[in-house]
Design a protein that fits this description.
243 residues; Arc Repressor Mutant, subunit A; 2 domains; four-stranded antiparallel β-sheet; 21% strand; globular
Length: 243
């Protein structure tokens, strides 16, 4: 059984974030665990899918660093099963060049991905970014339009009163659109404003827009709320009128 590190308390977070690292490569897992530990996180490890699910059920993590290629049960299935138990941020580790696999990871609910080989420091920064965005924003400002409502403090979103099961990125994207109706944004704009990145794979934005449409549109194949602006990007149109 892999050991848990002693917790490190931080004033900004108010409590120690628990990270579950899932990778069957002991060298990668050890390096990632070491960097996360030094960054002040409580870290647990698993080297296969079933063990990861067991660890997650015993001590629910605040974030999972999940390798896509695992023995017995791949990372996609692990991510699906974790999502079935409740929302948890996931950063997927993928091999460089496996674009289809990265897209699949985003489709099943991963919030971010890092390609191998990667810089452990970059991974820690990604972890910090995802965790920061997963914490409720104490704004007290509820957003609503077109039957959609977002409560940033509770991290809760609804459509016509019914709860929406959104990932971290989908929630942030919907909140951003509700704050800025009627304005067109490029994928670069959305990556910078919603993701907080100045660079990255723009297909990440495309996938999250598609997933969000599947949850908020009456007919995702003919979106009326989140419209494509050809040659530009996307626009949230509360009226549902196609312009």
């Amino acid at each position: 059984m892999q050991p848990l590190y002693e917790p490190h308390w931080t004033e900004a977070a108010g409590e120690t974030a628990r990270i579950l690292v899932v990778d069957d490569d002991p060298t990668v897992a050890e390096v990632v665990t070491g960097y996360l530990h030094r960054a002040g996180y409580l870290v647990d490890r698993a080297d296969d899918g079933p063990t990861a699910l067991t660890r997650a059920a015993a001590h629910r993590p605040d974030l999972v660093v999940l390798d896509l290629m695992l023995p017995g049960m791949d990372g996609l299935e692990v991510c699906r099963r974790m999502r079935d138990r409740g929302p948890v941020p996931v950063i997927m580790l993928t091999a460089r060049g496996d674009e289809d696999d990265r897209i699949l990871g985003l489709e099943v609910g991963a919030d971010d991905y890092v390609t191998k080989p990667f810089s452990p420091r970059e991974l820690v920064l990604r972890v910090e970014s995802v965790l920061r965005r997963s914490r409720p924003a104490t704004t007290g400002h509820r957003l609503a339009a077109a039957g959609l409502a977002v409560d940033p403090d509770a991290r809760r979103a609804t459509k016509n009163g019914g709860e929406l099961a959104l990932t971290l990125r989908e929630f942030d994207l919907l909140a951003f659109f509700l704050r800025h109706p009627g304005r067109a944004y490029s994928r670069e704009d959305l990556m910078r404003e919603v993701w907080g990145w100045d660079f990255g794979d723009l297909s990440t934005v495309t996938v999250h827009v598609r997933r969000l449409r599947g949850k908020v549109e009456d007919d995702p194949a003919r979106p009326r709320l989140i419209q494509t602006v050809w040659g530009v990007g996307y626009r949230f149109e509360p009226s549902g009128a196609v312009l």
